[in-house]
Design goal:
Keywords: FAD, Flavoprotein, Oxidoreductase. The chain is of the alpha+beta class. The protein is built from 12 helices and 14 strands.
């Protein structure tokens, strides 16, 4: 690790001001940043700790959506009665991230802002049509927020403050885990709304979390596993590595999508 200054602001306003410093980096759960610092792959001059900001924590139901603060930990999302009753698929997703140590430190906002190509939360945000709120007062649709591997629409120094998830009529997340990391080798989140279905894929696509337009069209006409039977995600758009070829991942996408639809009931 390189030397850095550590700041623990008492309010979001103080955090925003601190982020104006040269090479300032926000930290909340630190599940990605700390290993990155240890490996000397990042060298911020200032770490701005958001973990003590109560205004960035908590879950509330506001009409037809769930509002979840960016500093809300995975374990708190998983255990929230509001999440379990409104979007049980989201609670189940959070409860299966990493291990207990990760779930009790990692945060929703950190996962969304980091946009790891195998992370679970971005698929939920994309499939549910979430809105990401930022410290700059912007409300960014998930479709416009995730731009590629580890790339988002956040500007320099801008922080995620809250994520609003529309409540679907049904949803389910299926994850085929890479057993060592428990990241998604392939993850598929399916959400059904009165206006149609949305399908998001994580862990598989070269450009990071992505929607499967063809499956969405089929499921919007006929929300059944049969509607996507025989459909295949284009393998040439998928990752190939020691854990699975593009063809292997393409097959998993189809299998997990059908399972998610069946689980929606």
């Amino acid at each position: 690790m390189y030397n850095f200054d550590y700041l623990r602001p008492a309010s979001l306003a103080e955090a925003v001001e601190a982020m104006k410093g040269e090479d300032a980096q926000a930290i909340s759960g630190g599940q990605t940043l700390i290993p990155t610092l240890k490996a000397r792959l990042a060298s911020p001059s200032v770490l701005v700790d958001l973990s003590g900001l109560a205004e960035l924590k908590g879950v509330s139901r506001e009409g037809d959506k769930l509002a979840i603060g960016a500093a809300t930990r995975h374990a708190d999302v998983a255990g929230s009665e509001a999440v379990r009753s409104a979007i049980p698929a989201l609670a189940a997703l959070a409860g299966n991230i990493g291990d207990p140590a990760v779930r009790n430190r990692g945060t929703l906002g950190g996962s969304v802002a980091n946009n790891d190509p195998a992370a679970c939360y971005p698929s939920a945000a994309l499939a549910l049509g979430a809105t990401i709120h930022t410290s700059a007062g912007r409300a960014i649709a998930a479709d416009d927020f995730f731009l590629g591997m580890f790339e988002t629409a956040l500007e320099e120094g801008e922080l995620v403050t809250r994520v609003d998830f529309p409540i679907p009529t049904a949803a389910n997340y299926q994850k085929f885990e890479q057993p060592a990391s428990r990241f998604a080798l392939v993850g598929v989140f399916v959400a059904r709304f009165p206006g149609g279905a949305r399908v998001a894929i994580t862990g598989a696509c070269e450009g990071g979390v992505s929607r499967w337009d063809a499956a969405e069209a089929a499921l919007s006409s006929d929300f059944s596993a049969g509607a996507v039977t025989g459909m295949a995600f284009p393998a040439d758009a998928l990752i190939g590595d020691i854990h699975g070829t593009p063809a292997y991942r393409a097959n998993l996408i189809g299998v997990l999508t059908r399972r998610a639809v069946q689980a929606c009931g």
